[in-house]
User: Which sequence fits this backbone?
């Protein structure tokens, strides 16, 4: 593709990795005598589980710590429970607990109610390049244990490290894992349990798309956001639109049309281009630099008659759209509709805020 970058973001103040409300908690203070984190939280909780060396810590570091995939080769094996708090925006607020593969949840020292009671999603990582019989055994045991405690958990299986597999091997592995889990759950009379499966790798965008699907299930307003994006698309002749969290590059909502991987990759990469170029060239006289602010916007014209269009929604969210060149001639109309979209998003924020305050 031929890229024409038109930066329209000026008054910057901080670097691309500064100022974001991401924090890694002090693990030692949050762990009880059994090693499990203690202390209630009002944020949704995602549990990251799997056997040792399956790739859990690599996923956490690549998605939420912006670590390069090649750097994960030097990560040491996780020996205690790691807990991250993600609070980038009003919508993207949750916790990620990374569990060591050697932990035995059936040990009486572990309180299953504490671990699974406030959990909303359980992500189990299966190494597709290794023998996964033991992994599926632990997966089934974990599902039974978790479902007995909390029947509202979303069970997600990441069939991981598929970058080195052929397409036929990917299909066969997915089919076999799905069939074995299904049979085991039927034997255990757990027909009400729904398990979702994703093919993932940290070396491409599949891990970000998979986590996007997981996080969307935690957002109560995702249906409203999808409706707003559908209305924006129809009123502006937009082909595809994503609402991205710019810190993790997880998209928290998209319109109702199917997600094409190539389109998602282009929109995701555009965020990096905008932030990197803005950080280099968007310097104020005082020397400060901010890669993303209220004036951030960009247009990239591709050589296939497609336009990539990015606009800031708030400090942590960006709207990225794919538009045909002939439909982008009325950019003023699109800009106005995006302004109305941002106003609607803010109203959804306010409603959510009042709802949370009412619960307290």
Assistant:
């Amino acid at each position: 593709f031929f890229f024409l970058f038109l930066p329209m973001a000026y008054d910057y103040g901080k670097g691309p990795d500064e100022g974001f409300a991401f924090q890694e908690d002090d693990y030692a203070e949050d762990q009880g005598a059994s090693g499990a984190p203690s202390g209630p939280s009002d944020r949704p909780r995602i549990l990251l589980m799997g056997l040792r060396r399956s790739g859990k810590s690599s996923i956490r570091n690549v998605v939420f710590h912006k670590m390069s995939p090649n750097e994960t080769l030097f990560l040491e094996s996780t020996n205690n429970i790691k807990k991250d708090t993600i609070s980038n925006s009003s919508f993207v607020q949750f916790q990620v607990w990374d569990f060591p593969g050697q932990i035995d949840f059936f040990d009486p020292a572990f309180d299953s109610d504490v671990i699974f009671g406030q959990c909303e999603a359980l992500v189990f990582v299966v190494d597709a390049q290794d023998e996964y019989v033991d992994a599926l055994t632990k997966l089934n045991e974990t599902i039974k244990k978790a479902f007995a405690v909390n029947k509202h958990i979303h069970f997600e299986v990441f069939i991981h490290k598929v970058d080195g597999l052929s397409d036929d091997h990917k299909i066969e592995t997915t089919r076999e894992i799905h069939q074995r889990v299904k049979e085991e759950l039927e034997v255990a009379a757990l027909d009400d349990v729904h398990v979702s499966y994703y093919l993932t790798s940290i070396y491409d965008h599949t891990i970000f798309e998979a986590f996007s699907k997981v996080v969307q299930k935690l957002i109560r307003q995702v249906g409203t956001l999808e409706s707003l994006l559908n209305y924006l698309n129809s009123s502006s002749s937009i082909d595809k639109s994503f609402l991205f969290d710019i810190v993790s590059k997880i998209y928290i909502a998209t319109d109702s049309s199917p997600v094409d991987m190539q389109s998602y990759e282009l929109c995701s990469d555009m965020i990096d281009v905008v932030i990197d170029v803005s950080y280099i060239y968007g310097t104020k006289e005082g020397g400060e630099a901010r890669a993303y602010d209220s004036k951030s916007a960009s247009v990239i014209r591709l050589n296939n008659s497609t336009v990539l269009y990015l606009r800031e929604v708030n400090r942590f969210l960006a709207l990225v759209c794919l538009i045909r060149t002939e439909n982008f001639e009325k950019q003023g109309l699109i800009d106005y509709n995006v302004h109305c979209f941002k106003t609607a998003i803010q109203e959804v924020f306010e409603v959510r805020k009042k709802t949370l305050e009412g619960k307290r």
The mean pLDDT is 84.
